[in-house]
Amino acid sequence: MAKVSTYLTFSGQTEAAFTRYKDVFGTEYLGGLMRYGSMPAGEGEEAMPEEMANLVLNVQLPILGGHLLMGSDAHPKYSPGLILGNNIAPTLHTDSREQADTLFAALAEGGEARMPMADQFWGDYYGELTDPFGIQWNIVYTPES
Fold first, then answer.
1. Pick from 97, 105, 110: nearest CA to 140
2. Residue 105, domain CATH
3. What average pLDDT score do residues 6-24 get?
C-alpha cells in the first residue's frame, strides 16, 4: 500500500536528533544507521574523508500511526546544501515502479529532477526532485523481497 513519510535533513546532527527521537517515540531504527562511508566509490573517485564517511546517509524511524520519520546529513557532494526550509521533504512510497515514474514526472514538470529515478545500491528504485514551487520531493519504490 502506498504511503507518505517525512524526510529531515541536518548539518551533522542527524545521529543526535534521531537518538533523541528514538527515545521520545520508544521505537527502533529500521535497518540501523547507514553512513556515507558505506556508499560504493564511483570509478576514479578518491576515498571519502573520514569526517564525511561518518555522516548519516539514511536513517528510518517509525513514529506514530505507521508514519516513518527518515533523515540524513547534508553532504556537499550529494545535496544542494542545507538551507532552513529545504531540510524537510515529503517522501512518497509507491506501490510500483510505474507509479513512481508517473509521480516523479508530474511533480518534476517545470521544476528540477535532481536525482532521476534509478535503481539504487541499497535496493530501492529512488529519485529526488524539486517542484516548480521549490518543494523537494523524494519518490521511492521498494520491491518486495
1. 97
2. 3.10.180.10
3. 88
